[in-house]
Design brief:
It contains 8 helices and 12 strands. By secondary structure, it is of the alpha/beta class. A hairpin with a 3-residue loop joins strand 6 and strand 7. The chain is elongated. It comes from Streptomyces tanashiensis.
């Protein structure tokens, strides 16, 4: 998925760009409204700051909306209710106030894309191999057709890892997605939850540890018990 990021604050933009890249997004970053409107390569969603150096971001939002129905999420230090209402009324799909965490922005992107492209989303439980099913809408998990009792964080961890089976996820990426971008506690809690998933889902999936990096979820081949 390709994101157009229109943001003139370099530290904010770089942090957000790195976070989006870690989650598998492609990012084109520009620093002015004029540059944003001049982009000709296709993109799936716009992250738009309102406080741009050359023009008001609301004017950019209006211009983008006149061009088509690409989803637009406003990211701004303007937290006043009036700005939020105006942004939404002129065509923005969502509004995120600074400061924000990458996890929040990712969640907003996914929520917006579910609304604008509902047919792209699974309507029922998704199967992983022959034994494991995850129903994201109901937040329920089954192993061999028997429901597995997971704690909320165990479920969040499994749901995140099964988004891309086989992909190596760094500890930082997992902590941001499952806990919080501003988590300051020990990352040992991640190991505890991984151990719980290994125990509860033994034989269906394997959560492999890559020393010094993170974890990957591997779905056991059909027929292996």
């Amino acid at each position: 998925m390709r994101v157009l990021l229109v943001e003139d604050d370099e530290p904010v933009a770089e942090s957000l760009r790195r976070g989006l890249l870690r989650y598998g997004f492609e990012v084109e970053w520009v620093t002015t409204g004029t540059a944003g409107l001049a982009v000709t390569t296709p993109y799936d969603l716009v992250l738009l700051d309102l406080g741009l150096p050359d023009t008001d971001g609301l004017d950019v939002c209006r211009a983008l909306r006149r061009r088509g129905d690409v989803p637009i999420i406003v990211i701004s230090a303007r937290s006043d209710e009036t700005d939020r209402v105006v942004g939404l009324e002129i065509g923005a799909d969502d509004y995120v106030s600074k400061p924000f965490g990458v996890r929040e922005v990712i969640a907003r992107i996914r929520a917006v894309m579910r609304r604008v492209r509902p047919t792209d989303q699974p309507t029922g439980p998704q199967r992983y191999g022959a034994r494991l099913s995850v129903d994201r809408k109901a937040a329920r998990v089954w192993l061999d057709d028997a429901e597995v009792a997971l704690t909320p964080k165990e479920y969040d961890l499994l749901a995140f890892l099964t988004e891309e089976p086989g992909a190596l996820m760094s500890r930082e990426q997992i902590m941001e997605a499952v806990w919080d971008a501003n988590w300051f506690g020990p990352t040992k809690t991640l190991d505890v939850h991984v151990a719980a998933l290994r125990r509860k889902l033994a034989g269906a999936v394997t959560v492999e540890a890559v020393r010094g990096v993170g974890f990957r979820l591997v779905v056991e081949p059909v027929g292996r018990q």
